[in-house]
Amino acid sequence: MQHQRVASVSVRAKPVDSLENMTNAVFLFDPDNDDVPVNSDESSIGWKLTLPAQVRRHAVQSMRLKAGDEFQLTDGRGLRLGVALVDADNGIAEVRDFVREAQPVTRLALVQALAKNGHDEQAIDTATQIGVDTVVPWQADRSIAKWKNGRTDRKWLSTLQAATEQSRRAWVPELEECVSSKQIISMILRANVHGDLVVVLHQDATDTWSSIEEQTEKLADTCLKDGKPRTVYVVVGPEGGISEDEVARFVEAGARSVVLGRNILRASTAGPVALSLLSRSLGRFA
Predict the structure, then answer these.
(1) How wide is the angle at C-alpha 141 spanned by C-alphas 139 and 147, nearest 5°?
(2) Backbone angles phi, psi at 227, to 5 degrees
(3) What domains lie within the chain, and their CATH numbers?
(4) Helices 181-194 & 244-253 angle (0-180, nearest 10)
(5) Cβ atoms of 94 and 86 closer than 8 Å
(6) Contacts of 61 (CB under 8 A, 6+ apart)
(7) Which helix (H) or strand (E) holds 230?
(8) Residues with Cβ < 8 Å from 147, sequence gap 6 or more?
(9) Using CA atoms, how far apart are residues 219 and 203, in angstroms rounded to an integer?
(10) How many whole angstroms separate alpha carbon 138 and alpha carbon 152?
(11) Are 45 and 91 in contact (CB under 8 A)?
């Protein structure tokens, strides 16, 4: 992405917080390959940018944006640029305002078991729209689908990126490596040390969801007091559910096993429902 300075001004980053701006389309760019001013210590107001080919195709050819139309660019790492298209034919846009958004201090992670028929991808798509911060693929004992490096990871990342644009987010959820049940136990043990919370959704659990919300609120209060980030992990099994052996080992390691209401949810909906409830408890939907 090429750019040229058209004005020499020194101003602070202006938050993009109006309803009008927040409803504008958002497009991701790759800060490692696209030439974009990403240093918020210096003004980017007035810069003219040549849009990357993929953004230009989507914005100009697919959405038919024209000169004067406003939209946003984000690096998926918190930078949000408010821009206006000035030359549709050549894909030139001008930066109007920009902001860097911080990550939440209390973070949400989805540990999603691989599921057949695309239910796992549906889950992480919806979770991204809700606001999940980290996604961890899990090869559960009962997972029929198999993780294939170089193929499945690209599909999941593409899903996260598309959902990020659709939901107008400035952060793409972090996609971690696919883990085994044994590695989840290690994750739970680390969570015990760091003060994180690991919640395992299981239909036969006796703990209720209200107890999880109470613990999450306490965790959030602690984060606000000491400023240290902590994470609430939601572990969701495949279509056949999490095996009794896996649940027992997770709980023994320190996870909380809970039932999410009376109805049995699909692998594609259980995680998003839990994340929605947690987001409400954390005030993200306020």
Answers:
(1) 25
(2) 75, 5
(3) 3-100 (2.40.240.20), 106-281 (3.40.1280.10)
(4) 20
(5) yes
(6) none
(7) strand 230-236
(8) 114, 137, 139, 153, 178
(9) 25
(10) 12
(11) no
The SS3 assignment for 37 reads: coil
End-to-end CA distance of the chain: 36
Instruction: Tell me how far apart the alpha carbons of residues 173 and 108 are, in angstroms, rounded to a whole number.
Output: 10
- Give the integer Cα–Cα distance in Å for 161 and 125: 9
CA-to-CA distance for 171 and 80, rounded, in angstroms? 9
Tokens, residue 157? 């990342």
pLDDT in tens, the chain (286 residues): 443 322 222 223 444 443 345 678 999 988 776 665 444 444 467 788 888 888 888 888 778 888 888 999 999 999 898 989 998 888 888 899 888 999 999 999 999 999 999 999 999 999 999 999 999 999 999 999 999 999 999 999 999 999 999 999 999 999 999 999 999 999 999 999 999 999 999 988 888 899 999 999 999 999 999 999 999 999 999 988 999 999 999 999 999 999 888 888 899 999 999 999 999 999 998 7
Copy the structure tokens of residue 102.
């911080």
The pLDDT value recorded for residue 1 is 46
- Helix 270-281 and helix 209-226, axial crossing angle in degrees, nearest 10: 50
- Please answer whether residues 51 and 91 qualify as being in contact, where contact means their C-beta atoms are separated by less than 8 angstroms: yes
What is the number of alpha carbons within 13 Å of residue 255 lying toward its C-beta?
A: 26
- Compute the distance between CA of residue 29 and CA of residue 38 in angstroms, rounded to an integer: 11
Pairing of strands 256-258, 197-201: parallel
